[in-house]
Design brief:
The chain is mainly beta. 5% of the residues lie in helices and 42% in strands.
Protein backbone atom coordinates (compact mmCIF):
# COMPACT_ATOMS: atom_id res chain seq x y z
CA UNK A 1 0.00 0.00 0.00
CA UNK A 2 1.31 3.43 -0.84
CA UNK A 3 2.30 5.66 2.02
CA UNK A 4 0.42 8.99 1.70
CA UNK A 5 3.28 10.73 3.49
CA UNK A 6 5.80 9.83 0.77
CA UNK A 7 6.13 11.65 -2.57
CA UNK A 8 5.37 9.66 -5.68
CA UNK A 9 6.24 10.13 -9.34
CA UNK A 10 4.08 8.92 -12.22
CA UNK A 11 5.45 8.78 -15.77
CA UNK A 12 2.91 9.34 -18.56
CA UNK A 13 3.48 8.71 -22.29
CA UNK A 14 4.14 11.85 -24.33
CA UNK A 15 2.30 12.13 -27.71
CA UNK A 16 4.69 12.15 -30.67
CA UNK A 17 4.69 14.53 -33.64
CA UNK A 18 1.27 16.13 -33.06
CA UNK A 19 0.99 19.24 -30.95
CA UNK A 20 -1.57 18.73 -28.17
CA UNK A 21 -4.77 20.74 -28.33
CA UNK A 22 -6.25 22.65 -25.38
CA UNK A 23 -8.87 19.94 -24.87
CA UNK A 24 -6.18 17.30 -24.79
CA UNK A 25 -4.17 19.25 -22.24
CA UNK A 26 -7.26 19.63 -20.01
CA UNK A 27 -8.06 15.93 -20.26
CA UNK A 28 -4.45 14.99 -19.56
CA UNK A 29 -4.40 17.28 -16.54
CA UNK A 30 -7.54 15.68 -15.11
CA UNK A 31 -6.06 12.25 -15.73
CA UNK A 32 -2.86 13.20 -13.88
CA UNK A 33 -4.81 14.55 -10.91
CA UNK A 34 -6.90 11.40 -10.79
CA UNK A 35 -3.85 9.15 -10.89
CA UNK A 36 -2.04 11.19 -8.27
CA UNK A 37 -5.05 11.09 -5.96
CA UNK A 38 -5.33 7.34 -6.33
CA UNK A 39 -1.63 6.54 -6.09
CA UNK A 40 -0.62 9.00 -3.40
CA UNK A 41 -3.64 8.61 -1.16
CA UNK A 42 -5.53 11.77 -2.10
CA UNK A 43 -7.05 13.25 1.05
CA UNK A 44 -6.01 10.22 3.13
CA UNK A 45 -9.36 8.59 2.32
CA UNK A 46 -7.54 5.37 1.62
CA UNK A 47 -6.72 4.18 5.14
CA UNK A 48 -3.29 2.67 5.65
CA UNK A 49 -2.84 -0.50 7.64
CA UNK A 50 -1.99 0.41 11.21
CA UNK A 51 1.29 -0.81 12.67
CA UNK A 52 2.72 -0.97 16.16
CA UNK A 53 6.16 0.05 14.83
CA UNK A 54 7.25 1.79 11.65
CA UNK A 55 10.99 1.78 11.09
CA UNK A 56 12.11 1.39 14.74
CA UNK A 57 15.84 2.11 15.05
CA UNK A 58 16.71 3.15 18.61
CA UNK A 59 15.12 2.13 21.91
CA UNK A 60 15.31 3.27 25.54
CA UNK A 61 14.13 1.47 28.65
CA UNK A 62 12.94 2.75 32.00
CA UNK A 63 15.62 1.94 34.62
CA UNK A 64 13.21 0.40 37.12
CA UNK A 65 13.03 -3.40 36.67
CA UNK A 66 11.15 -3.88 39.96
CA UNK A 67 8.06 -2.01 38.78
CA UNK A 68 5.07 -4.31 39.18
CA UNK A 69 3.81 -3.37 35.73
CA UNK A 70 7.29 -3.79 34.25
CA UNK A 71 9.56 -1.06 32.87
CA UNK A 72 8.35 0.63 29.69
CA UNK A 73 10.28 0.50 26.44
CA UNK A 74 10.31 3.52 24.12
CA UNK A 75 11.10 2.88 20.46
CA UNK A 76 11.96 5.61 17.96
CA UNK A 77 10.06 5.09 14.70
CA UNK A 78 12.46 6.78 12.28
CA UNK A 79 10.12 6.19 9.34
CA UNK A 80 6.94 7.06 11.19
CA UNK A 81 8.15 10.18 12.98
CA UNK A 82 6.90 9.12 16.40
CA UNK A 83 7.39 6.89 19.44
CA UNK A 84 5.99 3.46 20.23
CA UNK A 85 5.69 2.38 23.87
CA UNK A 86 5.83 -1.27 24.96
CA UNK A 87 5.22 -2.81 28.38
CA UNK A 88 8.13 -5.24 28.85
CA UNK A 89 6.20 -7.40 31.32
CA UNK A 90 2.87 -7.90 29.54
CA UNK A 91 4.22 -7.02 26.06
CA UNK A 92 1.22 -4.75 25.58
CA UNK A 93 1.59 -1.97 23.03
CA UNK A 94 0.61 1.16 24.94
CA UNK A 95 1.34 3.57 22.12
CA UNK A 96 1.99 2.56 18.54
CA UNK A 97 2.64 3.98 15.11
CA UNK A 98 -0.54 4.74 13.13
CA UNK A 99 -1.04 5.99 9.59
CA UNK A 100 -2.30 9.41 10.70
CA UNK A 101 0.46 11.04 12.73
CA UNK A 102 -2.02 13.37 14.42
CA UNK A 103 -4.27 10.56 15.57
CA UNK A 104 -4.69 10.26 19.33
CA UNK A 105 -2.41 7.28 19.88
CA UNK A 106 0.54 8.67 17.94
CA UNK A 107 3.36 10.46 19.78
CA UNK A 108 4.80 12.75 17.11
CA UNK A 109 8.48 13.59 17.79
CA UNK A 110 9.72 15.02 14.48
CA UNK A 111 9.94 14.12 10.80
CA UNK A 112 12.99 11.83 11.11
CA UNK A 113 13.80 10.98 14.75
CA UNK A 114 17.08 9.13 15.06
CA UNK A 115 18.24 8.87 18.67
CA UNK A 116 16.77 8.65 22.17
CA UNK A 117 18.10 8.81 25.73
CA UNK A 118 16.29 8.48 29.05
CA UNK A 119 17.00 10.33 32.26
CA UNK A 120 18.28 8.09 35.09
CA UNK A 121 15.16 8.99 37.05
CA UNK A 122 13.12 7.48 34.21
CA UNK A 123 10.70 10.40 33.92
CA UNK A 124 11.75 11.91 30.57
CA UNK A 125 13.19 10.91 27.21
CA UNK A 126 15.17 13.18 24.91
CA UNK A 127 14.73 12.58 21.16
CA UNK A 128 16.91 14.01 18.39
CA UNK A 129 16.15 14.27 14.68
CA UNK A 130 18.13 13.66 11.51
CA UNK A 131 16.78 16.90 10.04
CA UNK A 132 17.46 20.33 11.44
CA UNK A 133 14.80 20.14 14.11
CA UNK A 134 14.31 21.14 17.72
CA UNK A 135 15.17 18.45 20.25
CA UNK A 136 12.00 17.01 21.74
CA UNK A 137 11.30 15.65 25.19
CA UNK A 138 8.62 13.19 26.22
CA UNK A 139 7.14 12.45 29.62
CA UNK A 140 7.28 8.70 30.28
CA UNK A 141 3.95 8.50 32.10
CA UNK A 142 0.44 9.40 31.03
CA UNK A 143 -0.61 11.65 29.37
CA UNK A 144 2.68 11.08 27.46
CA UNK A 145 3.17 14.77 26.72
CA UNK A 146 5.65 15.63 23.95
CA UNK A 147 7.29 19.05 23.96
CA UNK A 148 10.36 20.62 22.42
CA UNK A 149 13.27 22.42 24.02
CA UNK A 150 15.03 25.56 22.86
CA UNK A 151 17.75 23.65 21.02
CA UNK A 152 17.88 23.03 17.26
CA UNK A 153 20.34 20.40 16.04
CA UNK A 154 20.89 18.32 12.91
CA UNK A 155 21.90 14.63 12.89
CA UNK A 156 22.48 14.87 16.63
CA UNK A 157 23.01 11.96 18.96
CA UNK A 158 22.25 12.17 22.66
CA UNK A 159 23.61 10.52 25.82
CA UNK A 160 22.84 10.79 29.54
CA UNK A 161 24.57 9.21 32.52
CA UNK A 162 22.70 5.91 33.09
CA UNK A 163 20.95 4.83 36.27
CA UNK A 164 22.80 2.38 38.50
CA UNK A 165 21.12 -1.04 38.78
CA UNK A 166 22.41 -3.44 41.43
CA UNK A 167 22.69 -6.88 39.75
CA UNK A 168 22.16 -8.65 43.10
CA UNK A 169 18.79 -7.18 44.10
CA UNK A 170 17.90 -5.09 41.00
CA UNK A 171 17.43 -1.92 43.02
CA UNK A 172 18.04 1.32 41.17
CA UNK A 173 19.95 4.40 42.30
CA UNK A 174 20.52 7.74 40.62
CA UNK A 175 24.18 8.66 39.97
CA UNK A 176 25.49 11.61 42.01
CA UNK A 177 26.64 13.28 38.78
CA UNK A 178 23.02 13.54 37.65
CA UNK A 179 21.79 14.92 40.95
CA UNK A 180 24.61 17.48 41.03
CA UNK A 181 24.74 18.61 37.39
CA UNK A 182 21.83 17.07 35.46
CA UNK A 183 23.65 17.15 32.12
CA UNK A 184 22.30 15.95 28.78
CA UNK A 185 25.06 15.67 26.16
CA UNK A 186 24.46 16.06 22.43
CA UNK A 187 26.81 15.33 19.52
CA UNK A 188 26.50 18.13 16.93
CA UNK A 189 28.27 16.87 13.76
CA UNK A 190 27.72 19.92 11.48
CA UNK A 191 29.46 22.15 14.03
CA UNK A 192 32.10 19.67 15.28
CA UNK A 193 31.14 20.08 18.90
CA UNK A 194 29.34 18.63 21.89
CA UNK A 195 26.46 20.62 23.35
CA UNK A 196 25.61 20.40 27.06
CA UNK A 197 21.98 20.89 28.09
CA UNK A 198 21.00 21.55 31.71
CA UNK A 199 18.04 19.31 32.46
CA UNK A 200 17.13 21.12 35.66
CA UNK A 201 17.52 24.67 34.31
CA UNK A 202 16.10 23.85 30.86
CA UNK A 203 18.79 25.67 28.90
CA UNK A 204 22.08 25.22 27.04
CA UNK A 205 24.83 25.07 29.64
CA UNK A 206 27.97 24.92 27.51
CA UNK A 207 29.74 23.30 24.60
CA UNK A 208 33.00 21.52 23.80
CA UNK A 209 34.73 22.12 20.47
CA UNK A 210 36.08 18.99 18.78
CA UNK A 211 38.84 18.45 16.17
CA UNK A 212 36.46 16.35 14.05
CA UNK A 213 32.68 15.99 13.63
CA UNK A 214 31.39 13.55 16.25
CA UNK A 215 29.83 10.30 15.06
CA UNK A 216 28.69 9.00 18.44
CA UNK A 217 29.11 9.68 22.14
CA UNK A 218 28.50 8.02 25.49
CA UNK A 219 28.50 9.49 28.97
CA UNK A 220 30.47 7.31 31.38
CA UNK A 221 28.67 5.33 34.06
CA UNK A 222 29.88 7.70 36.76
CA UNK A 223 28.95 10.76 34.69
CA UNK A 224 32.41 12.33 34.94
CA UNK A 225 33.58 11.62 31.38
CA UNK A 226 32.17 11.60 27.86
CA UNK A 227 33.58 9.24 25.23
CA UNK A 228 33.41 10.53 21.66
CA UNK A 229 34.24 8.86 18.36
CA UNK A 230 34.86 11.25 15.47
CA UNK A 231 34.69 11.11 11.70
CA UNK A 232 38.50 11.05 11.74
CA UNK A 233 38.13 7.65 13.53
CA UNK A 234 39.69 8.93 16.77
CA UNK A 235 38.33 8.08 20.20
CA UNK A 236 38.51 11.12 22.47
CA UNK A 237 37.59 11.74 26.09
CA UNK A 238 35.95 14.86 27.51
CA UNK A 239 36.12 15.73 31.20
CA UNK A 240 32.43 16.27 31.99
CA UNK A 241 33.19 18.41 35.05
CA UNK A 242 35.67 20.84 33.48
CA UNK A 243 34.19 20.54 29.94
CA UNK A 244 37.66 20.09 28.47
CA UNK A 245 39.20 17.56 26.11
CA UNK A 246 41.64 15.22 27.78
CA UNK A 247 44.94 14.29 26.18
CA UNK A 248 43.56 11.09 24.66
CA UNK A 249 43.40 10.16 20.97
CA UNK A 250 43.07 6.56 19.82
CA UNK A 251 42.66 6.16 16.06
CA UNK A 252 40.83 2.98 15.09
CA UNK A 253 40.49 3.55 11.33
CA UNK A 254 37.63 2.56 9.06
CA UNK A 255 34.12 3.93 9.52
CA UNK A 256 33.25 3.73 13.23
CA UNK A 257 29.59 3.80 14.26
CA UNK A 258 29.31 3.54 18.07
CA UNK A 259 31.30 3.97 21.25
CA UNK A 260 30.40 1.97 24.39
CA UNK A 261 31.89 1.83 27.89
CA UNK A 262 32.33 -1.45 29.74
CA UNK A 263 30.26 -1.98 32.92
CA UNK A 264 33.39 -1.77 35.07
CA UNK A 265 34.67 1.32 33.29
CA UNK A 266 38.00 -0.34 32.51
CA UNK A 267 37.46 -0.65 28.76
CA UNK A 268 35.91 1.31 25.93
CA UNK A 269 34.62 -0.38 22.79
CA UNK A 270 34.32 1.13 19.33
CA UNK A 271 32.04 -0.51 16.78
CA UNK A 272 33.12 -0.26 13.16
CA UNK A 273 31.21 -0.68 9.92
CA UNK A 274 34.07 -0.85 7.41
CA UNK A 275 35.86 -3.02 8.21
CA UNK A 276 33.17 -4.59 10.43
CA UNK A 277 35.17 -4.93 13.61
CA UNK A 278 35.01 -4.50 17.38
CA UNK A 279 37.88 -2.44 18.80
CA UNK A 280 38.81 -2.91 22.47
CA UNK A 281 40.60 -0.01 24.20
CA UNK A 282 42.04 -0.16 27.71
CA UNK A 283 40.65 2.85 29.60
CA UNK A 284 43.62 2.87 31.99
CA UNK A 285 46.38 3.08 29.38
CA UNK A 286 44.31 4.16 26.34
CA UNK A 287 45.97 1.49 24.24
CA UNK A 288 44.06 -0.57 21.71
CA UNK A 289 44.06 -4.34 22.10
CA UNK A 290 45.83 -6.16 19.28
CA UNK A 291 43.08 -8.76 19.14
CA UNK A 292 40.98 -8.42 15.99
CA UNK A 293 37.33 -9.37 16.41
CA UNK A 294 35.99 -9.11 12.89
CA UNK A 295 32.46 -9.71 11.60
CA UNK A 296 30.76 -10.35 8.29
CA UNK A 297 28.83 -7.06 8.18
CA UNK A 298 28.68 -3.61 9.77
CA UNK A 299 28.09 -3.33 13.53
CA UNK A 300 25.15 -1.23 14.72
CA UNK A 301 24.78 -1.25 18.50
CA UNK A 302 26.10 -2.82 21.69
CA UNK A 303 24.68 -3.16 25.20
CA UNK A 304 25.65 -5.15 28.30
CA UNK A 305 23.80 -7.64 30.46
CA UNK A 306 22.69 -6.55 33.92
CA UNK A 307 25.53 -8.46 35.60
CA UNK A 308 28.03 -7.03 33.10
CA UNK A 309 29.40 -10.41 32.01
CA UNK A 310 28.11 -10.28 28.45
CA UNK A 311 27.74 -7.72 25.74
CA UNK A 312 25.23 -7.98 22.91
CA UNK A 313 26.04 -6.70 19.43
CA UNK A 314 23.75 -6.20 16.44
CA UNK A 315 25.08 -6.43 12.91
CA UNK A 316 23.88 -5.81 9.38
CA UNK A 317 24.14 -9.54 8.70
CA UNK A 318 20.91 -9.92 10.70
CA UNK A 319 22.36 -11.53 13.83
CA UNK A 320 22.70 -10.72 17.51
CA UNK A 321 26.13 -11.71 18.87
CA UNK A 322 27.25 -12.54 22.42
CA UNK A 323 30.43 -10.76 23.52
CA UNK A 324 32.27 -12.42 26.42
CA UNK A 325 33.74 -9.46 28.25
CA UNK A 326 36.45 -11.17 30.30
CA UNK A 327 37.53 -13.45 27.47
CA UNK A 328 37.31 -10.82 24.71
CA UNK A 329 35.47 -13.28 22.52
CA UNK A 330 32.51 -13.15 20.19
CA UNK A 331 31.21 -16.55 19.20
CA UNK A 332 30.41 -16.81 15.51
CA UNK A 333 32.33 -13.71 14.48
CA UNK A 334 34.28 -13.84 11.25
CA UNK A 335 37.47 -14.79 13.09
CA UNK A 336 36.01 -16.75 15.96
CA UNK A 337 38.59 -17.43 18.66
CA UNK A 338 37.24 -19.82 21.32
CA UNK A 339 38.97 -19.88 24.67
CA UNK A 340 40.34 -23.00 26.33
CA UNK A 341 40.26 -23.28 30.14
CA UNK A 342 42.27 -25.92 31.97
CA UNK A 343 40.94 -27.50 35.15
CA UNK A 344 44.28 -28.93 36.25
CA UNK A 345 46.72 -27.42 38.77
CA UNK A 346 47.14 -23.69 38.58
CA UNK A 347 50.64 -24.15 37.15
CA UNK A 348 49.22 -25.59 33.94
CA UNK A 349 49.07 -23.28 30.93
CA UNK A 350 45.97 -21.74 29.44
CA UNK A 351 45.51 -22.09 25.70
CA UNK A 352 43.83 -19.27 23.82
CA UNK A 353 43.14 -18.32 20.23
CA UNK A 354 42.15 -21.77 19.04
CA UNK A 355 40.27 -21.13 15.83
CA UNK A 356 37.10 -23.12 15.20
CA UNK A 357 33.61 -22.56 13.94
CA UNK A 358 32.06 -24.61 16.71
CA UNK A 359 29.96 -22.41 19.00
CA UNK A 360 28.91 -25.02 21.52
CA UNK A 361 30.54 -26.19 24.72
CA UNK A 362 32.20 -29.60 24.56
CA UNK A 363 35.05 -31.50 26.19
CA UNK A 364 38.46 -32.52 24.93
CA UNK A 365 41.26 -34.42 26.64
CA UNK A 366 44.79 -33.05 26.33
CA UNK A 367 48.20 -34.09 27.59
CA UNK A 368 50.49 -31.15 28.21
CA UNK A 369 54.06 -31.60 29.43
CA UNK A 370 56.45 -28.77 30.22
CA UNK A 371 60.03 -29.21 28.97
CA UNK A 372 62.06 -26.91 31.14
CA UNK A 373 65.32 -27.22 29.19
CA UNK A 374 63.71 -26.17 25.90
CA UNK A 375 61.29 -23.80 27.69
CA UNK A 376 58.33 -25.02 25.65
CA UNK A 377 55.36 -27.33 25.92
CA UNK A 378 54.73 -30.74 24.44
CA UNK A 379 51.04 -31.00 23.58
CA UNK A 380 49.02 -34.10 22.72
CA UNK A 381 45.30 -34.04 22.06
CA UNK A 382 43.47 -37.30 22.70
CA UNK A 383 40.22 -36.43 20.90
CA UNK A 384 41.03 -33.78 18.36
CA UNK A 385 43.40 -35.88 16.28
CA UNK A 386 46.34 -33.73 17.34
CA UNK A 387 49.67 -35.56 17.30
CA UNK A 388 52.53 -35.04 19.74
CA UNK A 389 54.36 -31.89 18.74
CA UNK A 390 56.13 -29.00 20.31
CA UNK A 391 53.72 -26.11 20.79
CA UNK A 392 55.55 -22.96 19.84
CA UNK A 393 53.73 -19.64 19.82
CA UNK A 394 51.70 -19.34 16.64
CA UNK A 395 52.48 -22.88 15.44
CA UNK A 396 49.72 -24.60 13.47
CA UNK A 397 48.50 -28.20 13.49
CA UNK A 398 46.08 -30.04 11.27
CA UNK A 399 43.47 -31.98 13.22
CA UNK A 400 40.38 -33.94 12.24
CA UNK A 401 38.39 -30.72 12.61
CA UNK A 402 40.74 -28.66 10.47
CA UNK A 403 43.53 -26.25 11.30
CA UNK A 404 44.15 -25.42 14.94
CA UNK A 405 46.48 -22.62 16.05
CA UNK A 406 48.06 -22.40 19.48
CA UNK A 407 49.24 -19.44 21.48
CA UNK A 408 50.93 -20.42 24.75
CA UNK A 409 50.78 -17.78 27.45
CA UNK A 410 54.25 -16.81 28.64
CA UNK A 411 54.96 -17.06 32.36
CA UNK A 412 56.64 -19.01 35.13
CA UNK A 413 55.19 -22.44 34.41
CA UNK A 414 56.17 -25.68 36.11
CA UNK A 415 55.40 -29.26 35.28
CA UNK A 416 52.31 -30.48 37.09
CA UNK A 417 52.01 -33.74 38.98
CA UNK A 418 49.67 -35.17 36.37
CA UNK A 419 50.35 -34.45 32.73
CA UNK A 420 46.90 -35.36 31.46
CA UNK A 421 43.94 -33.23 32.44
CA UNK A 422 40.61 -32.22 31.02
CA UNK A 423 39.79 -28.83 29.58
CA UNK A 424 36.55 -27.36 28.31
CA UNK A 425 36.14 -25.37 25.15
CA UNK A 426 34.32 -22.29 26.39
CA UNK A 427 33.12 -21.12 23.03
CA UNK A 428 29.87 -19.42 23.99
CA UNK A 429 26.52 -19.17 22.28
CA UNK A 430 25.74 -19.11 18.63
CA UNK A 431 24.59 -15.78 17.20
CA UNK A 432 20.82 -15.44 17.05
CA UNK A 433 19.04 -14.43 13.82
CA UNK A 434 17.02 -11.28 14.56
CA UNK A 435 15.79 -10.05 11.18
CA UNK A 436 17.22 -8.30 8.17
CA UNK A 437 18.66 -5.20 9.85
CA UNK A 438 18.77 -5.29 13.68
CA UNK A 439 19.69 -1.95 15.23
CA UNK A 440 19.13 -0.59 18.75
CA UNK A 441 19.33 -2.78 21.87
CA UNK A 442 17.75 -2.44 25.32
CA UNK A 443 18.11 -4.90 28.21
CA UNK A 444 15.75 -5.59 31.11
CA UNK A 445 16.58 -8.03 33.94
CA UNK A 446 14.14 -10.81 34.79
CA UNK A 447 12.97 -10.22 38.37
CA UNK A 448 12.55 -13.82 39.50
CA UNK A 449 15.65 -15.14 37.71
CA UNK A 450 18.73 -13.19 38.74
CA UNK A 451 21.44 -13.37 36.12
CA UNK A 452 18.99 -13.63 33.24
CA UNK A 453 17.83 -10.78 31.05
CA UNK A 454 15.36 -9.96 28.35
CA UNK A 455 17.12 -8.44 25.36
CA UNK A 456 15.04 -6.23 23.08
CA UNK A 457 16.24 -5.46 19.55
CA UNK A 458 14.68 -2.98 17.12
CA UNK A 459 14.58 -3.86 13.42
CA UNK A 460 13.38 -1.19 10.95
CA UNK A 461 13.40 -3.62 8.02
CA UNK A 462 10.64 -5.74 9.58
CA UNK A 463 8.91 -2.94 11.56
CA UNK A 464 9.31 -4.98 14.72
CA UNK A 465 10.97 -5.34 18.10
CA UNK A 466 12.30 -8.81 18.89
CA UNK A 467 12.92 -10.07 22.40
CA UNK A 468 15.06 -12.98 23.55
CA UNK A 469 15.98 -14.42 26.94
CA UNK A 470 19.69 -14.75 27.60
CA UNK A 471 19.56 -18.40 28.68
CA UNK A 472 18.07 -19.32 25.31
CA UNK A 473 19.56 -19.27 21.83
CA UNK A 474 16.41 -18.61 19.82
CA UNK A 475 14.04 -15.71 19.38
CA UNK A 476 11.62 -15.52 22.28
CA UNK A 477 9.07 -13.57 20.28
CA UNK A 478 8.77 -10.81 17.72
CA UNK A 479 6.34 -7.93 18.14
CA UNK A 480 5.26 -6.30 14.90
Amino acid sequence: MVDPMKPCLIALPTPARKRPTGLFVLAAGLLILTLLAGACGGNNQQEEEKRNFYGPTEIALQPYPLLESGPLLFAVNSWGGNLSILNTESYEIIKGYVSDRWEEKALWVGPAPQDIAMTPSGDLVYVTDANREAVRIGITIEPWTIDQIDLVLERARVSIVPALIDPDDLTTSIPPAWEERGEVWFADPPNSRLVVWSHFENRVDGQVELPSPPVDLQVSRDGDAVFVIGEDTALRVVDAVTRRLEDVEVFVGGLPTRVVESPAGDEVYVLNSNPPQLHIIDARTWRQDDLEITFRAALNDMAFSTDGDFGFITSDDGFLYWFYRELHRVCGSWYDKPYFYDFGPIANPTLVNIETEDCRTHEEEWKITYRQREDDWEVEGSKSGLQINLAYTGQSYISDQGEIKFLIHAGDYHESDGDAFRIWTRVGKEPVPMGALPRGIAISPIIDELGEDKVFVADPSTNSVTRIITDDTENFNTIE
